[in-house]
Amino acid sequence: MQALLNLHDCNHTIKANQPLSLWLQYVTMNDILTTNDIKLLVDTFYQKVRANNVLAPIFADKISEDRWPAHLENMYRFWGSILLYTHDYNGSPFDKHVGLPIDGKHFAHWINLFNETIDELFIGEVAGIAKERAANIARIFEFKLSTLKNIET
Length: 153
Known about the structure:
By secondary structure, the protein is mainly alpha-helical.
């Protein structure tokens, strides 16, 4: 029988015969606790979004190259407010999604990339909360956008 290391609040299971570097990666992972952690999360996530064949075209059509720094700053404030209670974000994120050519497929890619990013970088209670809140945001946005499309037709 193989020994397993199960780390709470995440999807990490490491088999006893895995390389030491893999063990150390997860042992040294931290929770999302600071604004620098938020920046790492947002920057890493949006690098993946911009490389994703489903999501990249949507973002490229909406955010020009010179507006990416401002978008990332806004996302630091958004996720900082949601996860660290910084209260720095002012705005209505849903409104920016109205009229975009997005549906369930796009939300599935978005949440998969978000969860993948969390699992690669963080472990702990806030990391789990981040995944829950992102899933809730995706479900709500998808439902509201679907409802708006049904009303228009």
